[in-house]
Amino acid sequence: MSLPSNLHPDEASPPWLNKGDNSWQLTAATLVGLQSVPGLVILYGSIVKKKWAVNSAFMALYAFAAVLICWVGWGYRMSFGDKFIPFLGMPNVSLDAQYLIDRAFLGYLPNATMVYFQFVFAAITLILIAGALLGRMNFLAWMLFVPLWVTFSYTITAYSIWCPGGWLAKRGLIDYSGGYVIHLSSGVAGFTAAYWVGPRTTKDRERFPPNNILLMLAGAGLLWMGWTGFNGGDPYTVSTDASLAVLNTHVCTATSLLTWLILDCIFFGKPSVVGATQGMITGLVCITPAAGVVQGWAAILMGMMSGSIPWYTMIVLHKKVWFLKQVDDTMAVFHTHAVAGSLGGILTGVFAVPKFNRLFYMVTDWQHYIGLFYGFHDGRTTAGFRQLGVQLLGILFVVFVHATMTSIICLLISLVVPLRLSEEELQTGDDAIHGEEAYALWGDGEKYESKHNSV
To which protein family does this belong (predicted)? Predict the structure, then answer.
């Protein structure tokens, strides 16, 4: 197809545009999008009771669409735009054609690519929060929660940690691909929102079997494979660091899954498929803040810890700690994302390789970006402890921001619509909420009319 006569070829592909990097960035973003739609849509719709399948899947689908409109309307510029206040960018639209085709802050990608790539990360964060609220949140309340949370909560940590002007970014916090911004954030926000929404019915809490484990595995598989773009896309270039991040991601995830599986076999005598899926998720989460800045042996150690520590907090500690028992976290996002994300952030502060950090951050700063292990090894112990301190500071900041903002948002929504479904809706599920059901099976809500009756 020929170009319009009034358009010069250099305007469509200017000299500064790196076509290979741009192609990979768009591909990586789409892989992350597929983690949500259809990945988590399928996983949520199949891991819950049959009566909650439609509602759970639709919470994820709605969040994906709603976040996109907020993101291009004001969210992207609040997260990555000009400074407004020390922890937030100036609200502005990202829909102007000239802005979208201009070069992004990295210099070799257009803004449109960056807006799209960062959108899928914002969207999956809200969808992960939904995991803590399945089986009882009023859908109208969820429709309000999504735009409010992405606007007033997500943007704060995204700007502070990922935007070059953010205060934690300036202090050298290492969050390679979202261990803090996405996973710790969603784990804390999900747990907090679950507290305000309240629990599922007693019957659902006591027994909540998946309606389709095979379909759940399909969703989990999309989640795992999509993580290639999740972590492999964050160098924003087709680089050796991207390759390292991808391999470390899969090595840590496999190790974590196997560790969780072994623990289930030892203590429960059976290899749980749902348990293995949880181990897969904790491995993916734990490696995310470190993916391209640690060595392979560190990825294995992180996998062993992400398959055992969240296992312990979920299976053992959760039943002993009074406060944890009071909150009904349907998908255990507190353990799989908040605990695993915090663990990954701390271990990043231990195992981060200075050389890899300089490749990723494109800096020559020897006082930042050094794991404690290498601080001891290189005789820069103070710098190593400083890095670990920054990682811990980041955890405290994310917990404070999202626990506070999520509480405020939930309380405000409760003044408009109930956060929790009515008792009748809780008993019936999908049919009462949406007028639709996941399966129409003979003997299961559908009246069977025999040939004899129809003659």
Answer: Belongs to the ammonia transporter channel (TC 1.A.11.2) family.
Task: Please tell me whether residue 89 adopts helix, strand or coil conformation.
Answer: strand
Q: What single letter denotes the amino acid at residue 432?
A: A
Say which CATH topology domain 17-439 has: Ammonium transporter fold (1.10.3430)
**Could you state, in order of their start, the residue ranges of all structural domains in the chain?**
17-439
Phi, psi (deg, nearest 5) at residue 110? -75, 155
Burial of 143 (0-12, 13-18, 19+ CB in 10 A): middle
Element holding 11 (H helix, E strand): helix 9-12
Alpha helical stretches, state H, 81-210: 97-101, 111-130, 139-149, 155-162, 167-170, 185-197, 202-206
Query: Residue 80 to residues 104, 140, 175: CA-CA distances in angstroms?
Result: 10, 30, 15
Q: What is the pLDDT of residues 350-404, one digit of tens each?
A: 999 999 988 888 777 666 789 999 999 888 899 999 999 999 999 999 999 999 9
pTM for the structure as a whole: 0.93
The residue type found at 157 is T
Picking from 122, 100, 131, the residue whose alpha carbon sits closest to that of residue 113 is 100
**Cα(411)–Cα(193) distance, rounded to whole angstroms?**
10
